[in-house]
Task: inverse folding
């Protein structure tokens, strides 16, 4: 039995229906455990105060914002190479989720930035990169919405996703270069993993897992909706033909 | 393919506004900026490289939706797609014609507009060089965006939304090269990056754009 | 060059519209496609011309043997008749446009901008374009739209001349063009909806 059998819409609908309740349950469990642990059961860091606890939302959201784009890239490549409709629809379904994750990362970053740096927004390379990623998501979603023919829309958005990925990576390096050019080195490092104690790290891991599960659940759910929409459109078209 | 290039140039000249419109827009953007930020020489000189690059970029954007739209409407694109020349070549020639009618005049006019913004004397050469290196990438990326949106109603607005994020690296390296040149710092890195982006887009994007046109004509 | 189409199926907007289309077109002959609106005449012609992929089936002649023309002529209004024609000749690797101008009675108009031509003159220029492609099989989609009776007659004569010189033509049209041609009604080839019992890869 080949992995590609799950790319058949019918098979996908059956399988996703079977596994979704379990995924939703795990998502809820790990989210509650991770956030409660992170928010209430960790000590306050001496130089950050209680504001540090926003990392339990901020870091997983930021990670999924990037991973969602990578997943869309993979799904787009699968669609272009193997022409599985489910793959194209999964890419389409993931885009708004990724957009929301980017928005959460930016918003929590701004809320955190105010007490930490005294400003909601700084043109830090990392922040700027996420803003650019946000624009990429907007363009991708807008292109899907604008094209009526579903196959053409899937093809064109896939091409955009591939070209966009290259430019997104390029932008990341350009932004790094640009900011170093203006300020001599970054004064505020956002790199947490290096200097984080285990007591903060373990609940963060649980939250990361919870966000991954949340992403999978949302994308599966949205893909199911997209498949149903396509099915309805196909039925209407057949009705008109007959 | 040369014939296509020459035809597009002839069309741009005869339709009027092919050369002029983008330049006039560039001029207006640059003239408006001092009204917005005030006439102080120091402020204007500091932001001049960025304003000139952003202005050139927006002027470039203005004419993008016409690259394929007219050819799509009058059936030329169908005929070009069935012609013996490769569609990748058609795309590259379209981008070249767009550059000659917008990027090249913008590059040549930029020093004059730099005068209005009190650009540092040391930066004029870098300004022209960076625009000459970077505007071909703007035309090529824009042609790719135009290929994605050809045949769409309200394609113009969508085109801007798709293309502007792709312009970010070019803009950063272009403006940075001028700003560093103005400050007397070494700017070989941004100039090399700019040239690299231009060469890479010229080499790769015609294939993506031609694929997009084939999908849109289907 | 023979054009043999076997068991061709083609789709519009992702939905199959025609299937099992088979015919043979020999040099010197013309084939008229008939059928109600929306049956897929344009889709079939665009598939043959290589503008969209076929779902299944074979086409013996490559797209490079066909000159495709829809009712849009691909003319630039600000260029003159001669410039328009010379451009397409160069794109198709040809040099001689004098014969095309002459044959379609355009020599006197050669320096007039295309925007000052009448509808019939534009159509003649569009047809002259077919001649400078140097391709044997003309694939024409509703070529007589917006033409008056005299222009239709001129057009018919031009196609007849092309056939006499060993070319062939595949034309989707509703009217008679004044020369002998085989007719092919596409109605029997309308794609039948497939079985509905399950989701398949195409959702239909």
Result:
């Amino acid at each position: 039995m080949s992995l590609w059998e799950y790319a058949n819409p019918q098979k996908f609908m059956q399988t996703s229906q079977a596994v979704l309740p379990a995924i939703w349950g795990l998502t809820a469990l790990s989210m509650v455990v991770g956030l409660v642990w992170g928010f209430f059961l960790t000590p306050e860091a001496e130089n950050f105060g209680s504001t540090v606890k926003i990392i339990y939302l901020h870091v997983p959201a930021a990670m999924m914002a990037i991973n969602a784009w990578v997943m869309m890239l993979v799904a787009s490549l699968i669609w272009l190479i193997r022409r599985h409709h489910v793959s194209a629809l999964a890419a389409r379904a993931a885009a708004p989720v990724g957009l929301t994750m980017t928005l959460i990362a930016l918003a929590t970053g701004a809320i955190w930035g105010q007490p930490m740096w005294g400003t909601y927004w700084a043109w830090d390379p990392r922040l700027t990169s996420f803003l650019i990623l946000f624009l990429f998501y907007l363009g991708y979603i807008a292109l899907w919405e604008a094209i009526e023919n579903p196959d053409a829309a899937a093809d064109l958005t896939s091409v955009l996703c591939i070209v966009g990925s290259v430019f997104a990576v390029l932008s990341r390096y350009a932004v790094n270069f640009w900011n170093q050019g203006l300020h001599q080195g970054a004064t505020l490092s956002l790199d947490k993993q290096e200097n984080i104690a285990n007591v903060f790290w373990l609940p963060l891991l649980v939250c990361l897992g919870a966000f991954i599960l949340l992403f999978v659940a949302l994308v599966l759910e949205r893909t199911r909706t997209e498949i149903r929409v396509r099915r309805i459109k196909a039925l209407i078209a057949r009705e008109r033909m007959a | 393919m040369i014939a296509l290039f020459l035809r597009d140039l002839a069309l741009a000249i005869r339709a009027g506004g092919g050369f002029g419109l983008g330049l006039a827009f560039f001029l207006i953007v640059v003239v408006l900026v001092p009204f917005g930020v005030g006439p102080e020489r120091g402020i204007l000189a500091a932001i001049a490289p960025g304003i000139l690059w952003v202005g050139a970029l927006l002027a470039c954007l203005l004419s993008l939706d016409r690259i394929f739209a007219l050819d799509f409407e009058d059936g030329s694109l169908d005929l070009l797609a069935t012609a013996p020349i490769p569609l990748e070549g058609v795309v590259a020639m379209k981008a070249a014609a767009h550059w000659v009618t917008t990027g090249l005049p913008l590059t040549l006019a930029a020093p004059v507009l730099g005068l209005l913004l009190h650009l540092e004397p040391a930066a004029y050469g870098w300004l022209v060089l960076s625009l000459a290196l970077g505007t071909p990438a703007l035309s090529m990326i824009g042609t790719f965006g135009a290929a994605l949106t050809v045949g769409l109603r309200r394609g113009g607005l969508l085109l801007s939304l798709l293309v502007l994020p792709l312009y970010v690296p070019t803009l950063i390296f272009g403006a940075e090269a001028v700003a560093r040149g103005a400050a007397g710092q070494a700017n070989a890195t941004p100039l090399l990056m700019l040239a690299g982006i231009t060469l890479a887009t010229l080499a790769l994007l015609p294939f993506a754009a031609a694929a997009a046109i084939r999908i849109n004509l289907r | 060059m023979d054009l043999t189409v076997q068991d061709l199926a083609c789709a519009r907007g992702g939905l199959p519209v025609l299937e099992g289309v088979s015919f043979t077109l020999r040099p010197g002959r013309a084939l008229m496609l008939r059928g109600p609106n929306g049956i897929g005449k344009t889709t079939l012609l665009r598939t043959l011309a290589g503008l969209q992929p076929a779902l299944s089936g074979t086409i013996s002649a490559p797209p490079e043997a066909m000159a495709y023309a829809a009712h849009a002529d691909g003319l630039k209004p600000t260029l003159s008749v001669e410039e328009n024609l010379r451009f397409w000749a160069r794109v198709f690797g040809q040099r001689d446009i004098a014969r095309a101008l002459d044959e379609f009675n355009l020599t006197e108009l050669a320096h007039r901008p295309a925007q000052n031509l009448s509808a019939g003159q534009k159509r003649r220029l569009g047809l002259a374009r077919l001649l400078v492609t140097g391709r044997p099989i003309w694939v024409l989609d509703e070529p007589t739209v917006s033409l008056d009776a005299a222009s239709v007659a001129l057009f018919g004569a031009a196609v007849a001349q092309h056939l006499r010189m060993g070319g062939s033509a595949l034309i989707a049209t509703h009217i008679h063009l004044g020369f002998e041609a085989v007719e092919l009604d596409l109605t029997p080839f309308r794609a039948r909806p497939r079985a509905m019992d399950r989701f398949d890869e195409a959702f239909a």
User: Anything to note?
Assistant: Chain C has a mean pLDDT of 82.
